[in-house]
Amino acid sequence: MEYYSSAISDLIEEFARLPGIGAKTAQRLAFYLIAQPEEQVEHMAQTLIRARTQVRYCSICGTLTDREVCPICESAARDHKTIMVVENSRDLAAYEKTGHYRGVYHVLHGAISPMQGIGPSDIRLKELMQRLQGDVEEVIIATNSTLEGETTAMYISKLIKPTGIRVTRIASGVPVGGDLEYIDEVTLQRALEGRMEL
Ligand code: ZN
């Protein structure tokens, strides 16, 4: 038996697709939206569509941006010879918030995970190696300290070593299994300063 009109159950289903949203929360969000003024919901819908159509990946570092090249890659004030490798744009944002990193980034969009069938060719490693053909002095590996993050760090370090470019790994002040985005700025800054040669 259908409890709700199909418009409502469709909406609940859409919310339930989102990460971290269970059936109950999906229902609550749907009812909340329906109770809002129409203009507000329209505005929200337009914001969603605008974000989806305008946001793309930076052609150099791969982070989310609304331009061909992101402001960090474009900036002459950044040190383009130092590349920090992160798993996703949220991690990049976490390091940017510390305000202490002057280099540029490379966003992998994932980590190697044999368990989930994610191999080296599924993340942006080829693009990283292409960037290293240019003038690069150091690659800082800032993948998470999860099993996947560590596996990825080791793989990248083996890949880069033969090029003679300095490879470092952020210090293990970052809690094991911790997602970078949840770690406070001071801890991140210390992790960066205490990075070690691989
Ligand atoms: Zn970029």
Give the H and E element order: HHHEEHEHEHEHEHE
CATH C-level of the largest domain: Alpha Beta
Question: Percent helix among the residues?
Answer: 40-55%
Q: How much of the polypeptide forms β-strand, as a percent range? A: 5-15%
| CATH-assigned fold name of the largest domain | Dna Topoisomerase Vi A Subunit, Chain: A, domain 2
Put simply, the count of helices is 8
- Distinct ligand kinds: zinc ion
Q: What shape does the CA trace take? A: elongated
The CATH architecture term of the largest domain is 3-Layer(aba) Sandwich
Strand order of the largest sheet: 4-3-5-6-7
Number of strand elements: 7
Q: What are the low-pLDDT stretches, counting only 5+ consecutive residues below 50?
A: none
User: Structural class per helix/strand content?
Assistant: alpha/beta
Number of domains: 2
User: On the 0-100 scale, what is the average pLDDT?
Assistant: 90
Taking all Cα atoms into account, the compactness measure Rg is 20 Å
Distance between the termini: 60 Å
Largest sheet: 5 strands, mixed
Structural description of this entry:
By secondary structure, the protein is of the alpha/beta class. The protein is 42% helix and 14% strand. It folds into 2 domains: 6-54, RecR Domain 1 (Helicase, Ruva Protein, domain 3); 64-169, Dna Topoisomerase Vi A Subunit, Chain: A, domain 2 (3-Layer(aba) Sandwich), CATH 3.40.1360.10. The chain is built from 8 helices and 7 strands. The radius of gyration is 20 Å and the shape is elongated. The model has no long low-confidence stretch (mean pLDDT 90).
